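Subject: complex prediction, re-run

Hi both,

The earlier run crashed halfway through, so I resubmitted it with identical inputs.
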Amino acid sequence: MIPLLQSLVDAVSAGAIYALAALGIGLVFGIMRLANLAHGEIITGSAYTLIFLWEFSWPLALIASAVVGVVIALAMNFAVFHWLRAQSPATLLIASFGLSILFQRLYDAAFGTNVRTAPVGSGLSQSIAMGGIRINILSVITIVLGVVLLIAVHLFLTRTSIGLQVKAASSDFRMARILGVRSGFVIAITFAISGLLAAAVAFALTTQSGAVGPTFGVQATLFGLVGAVLGGLSKLSGAVVGGFAVGVVLSLFTSWLPPWANDFRTALVYVFVIIALVVAPNGLLAGRSKKDRT
Amino acid sequence: MKFLSKTGMVAVSAASLLMLTGCVSSNATATDPSAAAGDPIIFGVVMAETGFMSPFDTPALNTMKMTVADINAAGGIDGSPIELKIIDTGSDLKRYAPAAEEVVAAGAKVVIVTCDYDVASPAALVAESNSLLNIAPCIGDPIYGPQGGLKLGFSMGNGTPGESSIMAEFAFDKGWKNAVFLTDTSIKYTQNQCAIAQKRFTQLGGTVVGTYNYVQGDKIAETVSQISAGTAPDVIFNCGYAAGGAQVAKDIRDGGIRTPIVSGFGMDGTYWLAAVPTLADYYVVTYSSVAGDDPDPRVNALSAAYATAYGAAPSVGSFITGTSTIDAIIAAHKAAGSWDGPALAKAFLAFSNTDLVVGPTTFTNDLHINVERPQRVLQVIDGKLVFQEERAPQKVVFVD
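This time it finished cleanly. Structure:
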């Protein structure tokens, strides 16, 4: 039987990835009320960049991956979401779904259906044994990266002028505009940061798999989004905790469910999320006030 | 029945190489009207050049184009060129039946379908309802045929029972007695693959020390922990297909498990190997070796011609099934003397160890697929798939 401590290590590792994905999704939702399903395609774009450039120069690959993430996120904003700002969240959601499909087809056309592969961070994906427990180096890095990025985003939002504008807009977009916050600029900054966060997720996932295909970022985004909703999309910390919780629960189900039930582990995660949302409809850590976007 | 000698096939392929480039650049047809004066004979092709099935369909489709170009260059069939009317389904299940109806309406004499039964069956059923022969180049499930209600349906592929039996026998003969089975449950092919391999492995006296399921896209760190915590296996059967199967291989090695791994055709191809640069002790049972080291010189010649025509060697060993599909159809037509579906099917049922580049081919009333062909065991060495041995199943077992 799998040791409990090993199971917890695996669970924390899985949770860290989805927490990172949820952070990027939650940030954009806070400003735009947009549950961006196309966040996965930002991840995919950054991941392809890592794959293509890694063996040429890994520092260049990391930098280019971040740049690509930011560029795709900004392009999505300026090409689509900028024009839909006054629309309902449902309209934005559908638009992001369309963008997601469009980008998947573009990746398919540009890079083919077969996965593209490269040994991205291959040394980091190895495991080390400590006291009978196997610890994946990448998992440690992902957890640290998640914590660092969360703190960095928090400091940005609370200690910088631009960040305060973003935070103000996130709290009450209409009032912030009346008080002179440049809405377009704030939204662009938010998308740019979400692009950077997507690049971080891309690095973790690409190091894990070494292979990228057109739908590479979909699963992480889906679980990240579900996690963000679970934790409460209106609060960044809620989104992160929710994303982490979804990863942990999925991992624990995989480890501990009996074989006859293990094939239903993903469905059971959604059952868990549904029950949690019935108990706390706005999310486990959501604020009380309902926020509107104009 | 022997209709193309080995040397003849190589000669025809070599002679027509120069014209291949022009032909393969056209998606819609592979016809050379100047080569024959009669009306084109249309072969409807309902396969995936894009989407998740394309890694398996495209190599076979490309060799179909090459073979048709060769035949047309040599005068076609009784003076008429073959035209491949190709519809790319994008691997979308909903598009198979309409695509089949379209090629039937265009006058297709036979319908050639994609390499997975679950996906191909809507197109095959359209062909059946129009009394047309329908051929799958590389479906592995024996249900493609009478078991699946397809009286006129045949697969040129290697049946999963034979492939999976070989996987088990190869592992057991290596002296590996304790096995873990990892099954991708997303498609029937991989489910049957592990079920049959497990059955054959235990028949031989092997012990199953663990069975785990996953689906495409899963990371299996938890399963790796469970394997590590249990009885150490001598071999792991990874019944999957890339890219999900590659993720599994990577997770196993990243988790520190160095046990030999055996897979089937689903993990054929080198396109995923760069993801696991230090991968070793990994074995794949498949149709052929594309690297020029196959024991059959016809395979090596076809692989070289493919590389010339398309700029790279085929991605998977099943590329040879495309050529064999066309060759088999023409042989059946010659025997039947018509394009009538039931007549062609009767000619197919007369195949008995017929020598095709895909291997000796036999069809029976019950089984429209080959399960006893010899296959190749390839090993991953330094990021390449290297031929190890040719092996036929000692005993073929079927899923319960």
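The radius of gyration of chain A is 19 Å.

- K.
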